[in-house]
Amino acid sequence: MDANTDQIFKNKKEKNLDALLSKLTPLFKSGVEYVGVINEQGRFVDAIYKKTLNVPAGQLEMFFMGARLQCSMQKDFDDALGRLSYVLIQREDLRILSVPILSFIVIVVTRTKSNHHKIIEKIINAAHNLVNQEGVQEDGCQEH
Questions:
Q1: Closest of 92, 105, 20 to residue 65, by C-alpha
Q2: Which residue from 28, 78, 80, 140 lies 20 to 30 Å from 50 (Cα-Cα)?
């Protein structure tokens, strides 16, 4: 790719990310505390939140890379088991959802008492609406 193509691609991804985050803002009404987005390499891209994650910066980077790795490793089973929809990690008082959307992974943190099924449904619906409205390509963790 030349420099102009790189810039157009970058601007399109940033536009998709901004649109995605704006569609996910209503999740805070469902008990969500944090919505973060990581890229294909597991690097933090952006977040919206009511409450920050109580994890030191160095460990947070490892946490995000781990979420990406889980998602990537699961793609080997797509043909046999179907596409990955999400990964759920339950901790003592938190649920952490990793949802592949577009070329990102959305990390959602909520309390265990929140209905994670409805939250996931809202995330997937928001992504589908974005794909349909904006005409963006949906690729998530999968390689097509």
A1: 105
A2: 140
